[in-house]
């Protein structure tokens, strides 16, 4: 990318263009959103947008990289902590996934809507599959350690657990308290709804 593209135009930078693009992609769908739509939303000419990004697909890549990068970094942090037991690691993975989803709600929402129609989407789906396998491995390790039920397939358990987390994109508000929500989801996922004792 040239220095001219990185620098951008007065009043807008790549980040502000990206925020508006993510919002439009989520409202209208990626395929149905044109650079003209984005220009109108920003109050710019179409050519002015190219001072910030090289293409619509580049905007999609940036958005998907935001979501995937934050999720991957969160899992890497959890995996790297030697003090965690398998159960603590899995709890921390669920908790950090909720925090990432809450703090990056528009980008994660977009990630969960991609279907593989473009090279950027295909790459994102491959990265999502890798994350799914890493989460399933954490479930398997917790089951083998006797911390959670061993009679449920780890991949299925992982899909159900993180499907619950991902479903939050349908009802969550941007002003939600990430930490409190992460605590609630983790408590319900591991301790259930029933009162004990």
Extract low-pLDDT stretches. Answer: 1-9
Succession of helices and strands:
HHHHHHHHHH
Could you tell me the number of beta strands? 0
Structural class: mainly alpha
Which helices and strands occur, and which strands form pairs?
Blueprint: H1 3-7, H2 14-28, H3 35-42, H4 46-49, H5 56-80, H6 86-103, H7 105-113, H8 119-144, H9 154-167, H10 178-191
InterPro entries: Homeodomain-like_sf, HTH-type_TetR-like_transc_reg, HTH_TetR, KstR2_TetR_C, Tet_transcr_reg_TetR-rel_C_sf
Domain HTH tetR-type: 11-71
Keywords: DNA-binding, Transcription, Transcription regulation
What does this structure look like?
One of its GO terms (molecular function) is transcription cis-regulatory region binding. This is TetR/AcrR family transcriptional regulator. It comes from Nocardioides ganghwensis. The protein is mainly alpha-helical and 197 residues long. The protein has 2 domains: 52 residues, Homeodomain-like (Arc Repressor Mutant, subunit A), CATH 1.10.10.60; 132 residues, Tetracycline Repressor, domain 2 (Orthogonal Bundle), CATH 1.10.357.10. 70% of the residues lie in helices and 0% in strands. It contains 10 helices and no strands. Helix 2 crosses helix 5, helix 2 packs across helix 7 and helix 5 runs antiparallel to helix 6. It is elongated, with a radius of gyration of 19 Å. The N and C termini lie far apart (61 Å).
Structure at a glance:
With 197 residues, the protein is mostly helical.
